[in-house]
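From the shared-data thread, chain only:
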Amino acid sequence: MWNMNDVINIEYKGGFVYHVVFDDGRSGDIDFQEYVGKGPVFEALRDTAFFKKARIEGGTISWPNGADIAPETLYEKITANKPVHRMRHKSAHR
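Structure, as tokens:
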């Protein structure tokens, strides 16, 4: 579940992939290939040199032409593939 977390760090990994880190410590590699060329604002991302110009703005990843991805979408992509670790409650032994 996303709790309005902000992206605090991004690192270009190659191709259309960035490693994204959120303020709660969750992180992971995200492949942005599915967005490339999807509508006029994402057309510029086809150019790798332009794609590498991503920055953090408004708590998410964005590019100089105004293209961005909602932070909750990024958070979901990172957490969808990672299991949530839950603590087990130990029953009291008598």
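Residues 71-80 form the longest helix (10 residues).
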